[in-house]
Design brief:
By secondary structure, this protein is an alpha/beta fold. It has a 5-stranded parallel beta sheet with strand order 2-3-1-4-5, sandwiched between helices. The protein binds adenosine monophosphate.
Length: about 190
């Protein structure tokens, strides 16, 4: 299997690119944000818990997120996938460690972290614009958007070093048209 972490701050374009790349490379797209939104929409217990964090722009606790992710990976493994495209996970060092151990347990590994690099002010603009149509409560409020970006720098940005330490980090310019960015990402994916 080839497992790739698509990385970057909120609004970098991970979800948009994942939709294209999953088809192109036949990978299973796993977005923890989508999983939380699905649970919130369906009023599950997990959804109610997640909402108390997502609405503030904060991360959901690691134990909850890790369990949810593992359960979904186990479910998807039954169909013998070619690999996973992780989107929005891992987001903390604890999550990265759990993912490494979990992949090892499954006889595979994370091949690479491919990061979309975008300036903060561009992110805020994109998220506000997306908020007009996404229906996402956390896109509708500039304060929450800025808190999500702050949370990224507090807890997530450091994961670059984690994967650089394993020689698995690839940075890609995340500004341009969707097609241009897909091309840049594909150039990295093709080598993996
Ligand atoms: P996203 O769609 O990836 O921007 O995620 C939306 C929200 O879901 C985030 O702001 C967090 O509250 C929560 N979330 C998604 N992925 C994670 C994760 N890996 N760890 C903790 N919280 C997460």
């Amino acid at each position: 299997m080839t497992n790739i972490v698509l990385f970057g701050p909120p609004g970098a374009g991970k979800g948009t690119q994942a939709e294209v790349l999953k088809e192109k490379y036949q990978l299973i797209h796993l977005s923890t944000g989508d999983m939380f939104r699905y649970n919130m929409k369906n009023n599950t217990e997990l959804g109610a818990l997640a909402k108390t964090y997502t609405e503030k722009g904060h991360l959901v606790p690691d134990s909850v997120t890790n369990e949810m992710l593992k359960e979904e990976v186990n479910r998807q493994l039954k169909s013998n996938p070619k690999g996973f495209l992780f989107d929005g996970y891992p987001r903390t060092k604890d999550q990265a460690r759990v993912l490494t151990a979990f992949m090892t347990e499954k006889g595979t590994e994370v091949a690479a972290m491919v990061a979309l690099e975008v300036d903060d002010e561009v992110l805020v603009g994109r998220l506000l614009e997306r908020g007009k149509s996404s229906g996402r409560a956390d896109d509708a409020n500039e304060e929450v958007i800025r808190e999500r970006i702050a949370e990224y720098y507090r807890k997530t940005d450091i994961l670059k070093e984690y994967y650089q330490g394993e020689d698995k980090y690839y940075g890609v310019n995340g500004v341009g048209s969707v097609e241009e960015i897909t091309e840049r990402l594909s150039a990295v994916f093709d080598k993996l």
